[in-house]
Amino acid sequence: MIVSVFKVISNENNTPEILYDKIIYIMNHSATQLDYIYGVNVNPFMAYKEMIFAKKVFGKMQGNAFLHFVLSFDNEDKINFSTIMEVGKKIGYFLAYNNIVGSHQVLLAMHTGTDNVHFHFLMNTIDIKSGARIDLWKPELYAMKDRISEILQSYDLSTIRKYTLADFKTA
């Protein structure tokens, strides 16, 4: 079965310091190149300062500083880097401006220096219009995955694995 994978990368402490480290990691020149780095509501080369500024404006320096998502394409997908970058930008705009979670700053980078082409998305947890902190629960995550699958499908790329009943079971 051909599927793409979209997952949340969880850190114990998504602090501003870790945000800085993540930005450095996803923009690493050995994994990507300048043409494959993009920002929505943020200048990619000022992302840390701009995301911290948004947090300070709303007095939200405590708590999780960011969400980190990774989208990996199936190895059987026919990958054209310029088309895949277009897909990544559409997903970045969706994450930044969707009705599920609000209006956010999103930094994205396509990593091509591995066997599997993939995107990293870093999203500021603070809504830049209201200052509200994002609450991403399973229903919101599943809705995000459904919309991202629609975007992928429109480019004839493999869609994200559908969730199963086991995903809804609680421990």
From TrEMBL:
It comes from the Bacteria. Pfam families: Relaxase. InterPro entries: Endonuclease_MobA/VirD2 (IPR005094). Residues 25-157 form the MobA/VirD2-like nuclease domain. This is Relaxase/Mobilisation nuclease domain-containing protein.
